[in-house]
Specification:
InterPro entries: Aldolase_TIM (IPR013785), Radical_SAM_PqqE_MftC-like (IPR050377), rSAM (IPR007197), rSAM_sf (IPR058240). This protein has three domains: 117 residues, no CATH class; 276 residues, Aldolase class I (TIM Barrel, Alpha-Beta Barrel); 70 residues, no CATH class. The chain contains 14 helices and 21 strands. A hairpin with a 2-residue loop joins strand 4 and strand 5.
Length: 496
């Protein structure tokens, strides 16, 4: 089948867009691959007349096995979990697939692409996705929440040195952390991150360190244990132990310019120490990733820093614009809008799908499901950025399974984007990203945690347009699609 035969009713999610009248036209190869596992489902079957050699008969069309359709306010999307591809269809095709209008030629084109099938003998309704039961898959163990030798201007936890630290509170003991690690493994969790503050400042009652906790996690069954550090306290000795335990390390680096890095950490000399730590990790062959948080203070050295990280041997890094949590809630810290738009906004569809991700997203949140964060004072959050939304305390209930099965965690895990303003009307809601703490922060308390619109998407499902504006919540709680930024968004998408 020629792509041109299809372009008036169906296009594939692509890097390149061409606008012809009101139709998006297919150009180039189909993009987006995924892998597959397993609720709700949407399987369609329609009946239309098929003409074959002058003989007209009734034929049944249905989407192929593993292919699902979801409607948006204006357009629709076909999810092919067999290949991982996501197709967007316009309103005319949406009506055909939903059965509101008949067009056998369109269905035959879908058949030719492997997205639909026909059977003159009343084909069976496709098998539904089994309900996906979420389990604990990832834990942030925030072993030192407020202690850090740096005092970064954007820190979500407001961590800092002793002289800047908040009032003293009861901390979890080493044995309590060991118990929580054990209970997490018993709950089926295989991946965790030890984080702070600065986790290398952690000391247990008998002088135990973050590496002692990491070693225990590895011994009891954690397959992936990562330490997120600023790298300033790394030494050849503790890195050798990291290597021996087969741990992973994540490091924050804000600029290749020492003065800019030190301005963000608010501690002179922190860049030199971090660079030294990175060199030790590299020389030891430790599995390391370098994270670059993007803000106004470092936007001018962004490209140079990305090149520096790559040349250092740590691979490609995508800048992550700061989230408005903790000290990061200061809006003046955000990068200038053109920079933010390029690295922080979804400007075009580049989606993937799989049977497992679709099943999860139909029932729950694409980012939060299967995750929890535990702080050093025992508070349990849905993630490390959700500081205003506690789902329990291990000091009040020492049995982690009770918290996991409790109303707080379960509500978070099983709150899908069907509850999110705007997203609930979007055909891409089951293959798109999300960040509830970011959405809550940008709603300024006017719309709730589960309903606040995702502020980093430029798609308008009511018009079917990408990069025409951004969704905002005003001071009164009103929702608007701010089109004043459209020229900037269009400039960014066109590469100007």
């Amino acid at each position: 089948m020629r792509y041109g035969d299809l372009c008036d009713r169906l296009f594939v999610v692509l890097e390149t867009w061409i606008l012809k009248t009101n139709l998006l036209v297919l150009e180039g190869e189909i993009l987006g691959q995924g892998a597959g596992d397993f609720s709700v489902f949407f399987v369609l079957r329609t009946t239309c007349r098929i003409s074959n050699g002058g003989v007209t008969k009734m034929g049944n069309y249905t989407l192929s096995g593993g292919v699902y359709f979801f409607a948006g306010a204006k357009r629709g999307a076909i999810y092919d979990t067999n290949t991982g591809k996501v197709y967007s269809v316009n309103s005319a095709a949406k009506q055909i697939i939903e059965g509101a209008s008949l067009d056998n030629s369109y269905w035959q084109q879908l058949v030719g692409m492997g997205l639909a099938s026909t059977n003159s003998d009343n084909c069976k309704v496709l098998q539904a996705l089994p309900k996906h039961q979420e389990n604990l898959r990832f834990v942030w163990f925030e072993i030192v929440s407020d202690a850090c030798n740096n005092c970064c201007i954007h820190c979500y936890a407001k961590s800092g040195p002793v002289s800047r630290r908040r009032c003293k509170t009861t901390k979890l003991t080493y044995s309590q952390w060991v118990s929580l690690i054990d209970q997490s493994v018993a709950a089926g969790c295989k991946r965790c991150q030890l984080i702070g503050g600065e986790p290398f400042l952690y000391r247990g009652e008998q002088g135990e360190s973050v590496l002692d906790l990491a070693e225990h996690a590895r011994k009891v069954g954690f397959e992936v244990v990562e330490i997120f550090t600023n790298a300033t306290l790394l030494t050849p000795e503790n890195v050798a132990r990291i290597k021996e335990l087969e741990l992973r390390v994540a490091v924050s680096l804000y600029s290749n310019e020492p003065d800019i890095h030190d301005t963000i950490t608010r501690r002179r000399g922190s860049y030199i120490e971090a660079a030294r730590g990175l060199r030790i990790l590299k020389d030891a062959g430790v599995n390391t990733r370098v994270e670059l948080i993007l803000m106004r203070a470092n936007q001018d050295t962004l490209l140079e820093t990305l090149s520096f990280i790559k040349e250092f041997g740590f691979g490609e890094t995508r800048p992550d614009p700061i989230r408005q949590v903790g000290r990061g809630s200061d809006l003046d810290l955000l990068p200038e809008f053109p920079v933010f738009a390029k690295y922080g906004l979804r400007l075009k569809p580049d989606f993937k799908t799989s049977l497992l991700s679709l099943a999860r997203n139909l029932r729950g949140n694409p980012c939060l499901n299967g995750k929890i964060a535990i702080t050093d004072v025992g508070v349990v959050y849905p993630c490390i950025f959700s500081r205003s939304f506690s789902v329990g305390s291990v000091l009040e209930d020492a049995y982690l399974e009770n918290i996991i099965q409790g109303d707080g965690v379960q509500r978070v895990w099983y709150s899908s984007k069907d509850a999110v303003v705007v997203c609930k009307d979007c055909e891409f809601r089951y293959c798109c990203a999300d960040c509830r703490p970011l959405a809550e922060a940008r709603a300024f308390g006017k719309i709730g945690y589960f309903e606040a619109p995702y502020p980093r998407c430029t798609y308008n499902p009511y018009t079917g347009e990408w990069a025409g504006g951004v969704w905002k919540v005003d001071s009164e709680g009103g929702l608007c699609y701010d089109e004043s930024v459209k020229p900037i968004l269009q400039s960014v998408t066109s590469g100007v």
